[in-house]
Design a protein that fits this description.
The protein is an all-alpha fold. It has eight helices and no strands.
C-alpha cells in the first residue's frame, strides 16, 4: 500500500511537531499514535494528489484540539520539549533553553503557526490548511509570534517596545 509508506515517512516530522506542541515526550508519543490511528482509519478521506503532509498535520491539529478541550487545559512546553542541536558551549545551551522557555510563553495559536512555518518549513498555505484557518490569519499570528518571541528573547516587555518610566 503506497499511501501507508508515505504516511510512515512523515512520522519523524509529526513526532517533532508533537514534541514542540505538547512538551513532554510521552504526551507527544501519545499524540502521534492517536494521530496515526485516526489518519489510517480516515485515509480514504484523503484526496490523492493533495498534500499528504498538510493533511496529516491537520489530523494532528484536530486530535490535539480535541484532547485539550477534553482536559480543559492548555498544554505547555516543559524543559525536555525540544531536542535542539547545540554546540558544546554553555552560552549556546543557555540560549537554546531560553528559546524553549520563551516559546512556551507564546499563546498556543501563535506557537502552532510559528512551529509549522519555521520548524516544519510549511508554506503559509500549508499551515493554513493544517490549522483550518485563513492564510491572512497565519500571516498575522506568525508576525505577532515572531515579534513577541524577539521581545521576550531580548528581555523587553511583551509588546516588544521599551516602556518609558516617568
Amino acid at each position: 500500500m503506497k499511501d501507508l509508506g508515505q504516511v510512515v515517512a512523515y512520522i519523524p516530522r509529526l513526532r517533532r511537531y508533537a514534541r514542540a506542541l505538547v512538551g513532554e515526550r510521552a504526551a507527544a508519543d501519545d499524540l502521534v499514535q492517536d494521530t496515526l490511528e485516526r489518519a489510517l482509519n480516515k485515509l480514504h478521506l484523503w484526496k490523492r494528489g493533495t498534500d499528504l503532509r498538510a493533511w496529516l498535520f491537520t489530523v494532528m491539529h484536530n486530535v490535539h484540539v480535541n484532547q485539550v478541550r477534553g482536559r480543559r487545559e492548555y498544554a505547555t512546553l516543559d524543559g525536555d520539549a525540544l531536542e535542539l542541536p547545540v554546540r558544546a558551549t554553555q552560552d549556546v545551551g543557555l540560549e537554546a533553553r531560553d528559546l524553549e522557555r520563551m516559546l512556551a510563553r507564546l499563546p498556543v495559536e501563535q506557537r502552532e503557526v510559528l512551529l509549522l512555518v519555521v520548524l516544519e518549513d510549511m508554506s503559509y498555505e500549508e499551515a493554513a490548511t493544517a490549522l483550518g484557518i485563513p492564510i491572512g490569519t497565519v500571516m498575522s499570528r506568525l508576525s505577532r509570534a515572531r515579534e513577541k518571541l524577539r521581545a521576550l528573547m531580548e528581555g523587553l516587555p511583551a509588546s516588544g517596545r521599551l516602556q518609558v518610566i516617568k
